[in-house]
Amino acid sequence: MQPQAPAALAPTHPVAFFCHFIFKVAALVFYIMCEVVNKGQFVTNFVVCIVLLAMDFWTVKNVTGRLLVGLRWWNDAHASESGTAWRFESLQEGQREINPHERRWFWIVVVANPILWVLSAFSAFLGLDWAYLLIPITGVILGSSNLVGYFKCSKEAKKSLQSMGTNIISAAMQNRLQAAIGRV
């Protein structure tokens, strides 16, 4: 008989949890390997990477955000006569229990995704690979859109960032004060 995983570590939504990772990984791996696998087939490589990025964006925005962290954002094109408006929703406390393991991995992946695409863009830029630079730029835009959208939805993320900023500022002020006192 195999031991059961603790309830907090077992994904509540295993398919959503898997999809949250797989499209990001597939897009990044295909981008890195596309010149090795499909050498000289830029159009095919570009289309496959963009489709994978679009699938990731749609999945995170419409499925995994709702299921894994209880957050949702969208752009309302018919909000008013003046144009569009972004809408943000967050489940109220106690409305649904969020698995802390899923929440932690959701945020790690949502934050890491644009960072990895920025590094890929930097690599393409340094390699003077101008055509392939379009793919990581698209990855940065789509990944950052999800990051900003979910950050604006999450009251917890805002509080965490504010406390982190306050801690950084107070630590910097304390270091300056100690340095000033040390000079006296």
What does the largest sheet look like?
2 strands, antiparallel
Radius of gyration: 21 Å
Specify the oligomeric state.
single chain
Question: What is the string of helix and strand elements?
Answer: HHEEHHH
Number of strands: 2
Given the structure, what is the number of helices?
5
Broad shape: globular
| Share of residues in strands | 5-15%
Lateral strand order in the biggest sheet: 1-2
Note the gap between the termini: 69 Å
- Mean residue pLDDT: 81
Q: Provide the low-confidence segments as ranges.
A: none
Q: Which range best describes the helical content: under 10%, 10-25%, 25-40%, 40-55%, 55-70% or over 70%?
A: over 70%
Number of domains: 1
Structural class: mainly alpha
